[in-house]
Amino acid sequence: MAKHHVTTTINGEPVEFLCSTRQTLLDVLRDELNLTGSKEGCASGDCGACSVVLDGRLVCSCLVLGAEAEGKTVETIEGMAQGDSLHPLQQNFLEDAALQCGICTPGFLVAAKALLERNPDPTETEVRYWLAGNLCRCTGYDKIIRAVMRTADEVRGEAS
Amino acid sequence: MQSVQFEAPGTVEQAVALLAGATGDARVLAGGTDLLVQLRSHLVDPALVVDIKHIEETRTLVRNADGSYTIGSAVAGAEAHENAQFVADWPGVMEAWDLIGSTQIQGRASLGGNLCNASPAADSVPAMIVAGMTANIAGPGGRRSVPVGEVPVAPGRTSLANGEFVVSFTLPARPAGGGDAYLRLIPRTEMDIAVVGCGVALVLDGGGTVTSARVSLGAVAPTVLLVEDAARAIIGTTLDDDALAALDAACQAACSPINDKRGTIVYRTQVAGVLARRAARIAAERAGSR
């Protein structure tokens, strides 16, 4: 069967790709577009390592068909740093040792960024629930939560 | 494993024509949080996938002039949660929908998908049933509307005929003195499948007496149950201890669960009664606060 010709916007850039129906958006990002920052952990929507923002909504890219991206906007981990300048969340994940093996980290960063854009002053409980769909087997989560809370404090401090 | 045709029609009529004309298995794609997992694990091997999200009617949640709601079958939980009036009117429906998966899943998961996946443990279904929701179905024979509880008929099977799909739901106006609630039990705090789910919707008169009630249980039978004996146990009462005990007993009597890793038959049955008591109290508090 002929492949689907999909026109979309990824991290602000117009992108075209070909995919079969069975290819997920994650498959397309990694295998067709060489955007390998989004990881495949479970491929069933449980682990959040493939998190991206699709038309403004945080989703698991393993649960979106590549063909569904037609006409949509996709934001991935590759769009988070501005050139050599890390996003404050990325900087604080490094400084607070909020990662070890790093497989879950892109998903956590994309999800945490989506949270802070909606809620710049989350409680710890809100952070933990928002990130409950991102699994980490190394850190025990505490350092991740602290890095997100600290980033929220810093960003609010700069804004005021 | 065959190659799969993918279509994203813009109208209900086009979607029906595609589904009805499919030569093999055809699957409707709403949020995809079940379908993509099934595709990946080869539980389904469709010839056609029809993405219904380009149909305006499946994607809109509107409050009608009479206070009822029309909810597109592919509206995502995160979208509904941003509608403050909807959340205020039907907190039980929203809390059941909210329980389906993580933030990421909420960005996609729909009521249409949760219903038509036909899991006995689907969290939104007991809440939809007690709220009196109807499914608005389109098919080759035109449109029809049925109570939500008539759509699932067995685990993984629905009453939808070839070529039919759920376009939207109608949720009645919140009755005066009405309250609803949904509770589920899982072995952890988040991200699991219900051991038992229980939805209760009721109406109180000015004196706090229950004038009407609906009670529904999930994950304790092959399909989600509407337990009429449980409703009868509390109608005409003020939810005193005797009434709650009768509600508990009626719910336990309705259960025919399975043993699995999440809970035994005995445990599920007892929990059904406990959740019904608690959900009825919460629904009554909500009814009284309005």
Describe the structure.
The complex is a heterodimer of chains A (160) and B (290). Chain A is an alpha+beta fold. Chain A contains 5 helices and 5 strands. In chain A, strands 2-1-5-3-4 form a 5-stranded mixed β-sheet, with helices on both faces. Chain A is globular. The relative contact order of chain A is 0.15. The mean pLDDT of chain A is 96. Chain B starts with a strand and ends with a helix. The longest helix of chain B is centred in the C-terminal third of the chain and has 24 residues, at 265-288. Chain B has helices spanning 12-21, 35-40, 77-81, 84-89, 91-98, 103-106, 111-116, 124-130, 228-234, 241-254, 265-288, and strands at 5-7, 26-29, 48-51, 61-63, 69-72, 134-139, 142-147, 152-154, 157-158, 165-171, 178-185, 196-204, 210-218, 225-226. Chain B is α+β, with helices and mostly antiparallel strands and 290 residues long. Chain B folds into 2 domains: 5-171, Uridine Diphospho-n-acetylenolpyruvylglucosamine Reductase, domain 3 (2-Layer Sandwich), CATH 3.30.465.10; 178-288, CO dehydrogenase flavoprotein, C-terminal domain (Enolase-like, domain 1, 2-Layer Sandwich), CATH 3.30.390.50. Chain B has 11 helices and 14 strands.
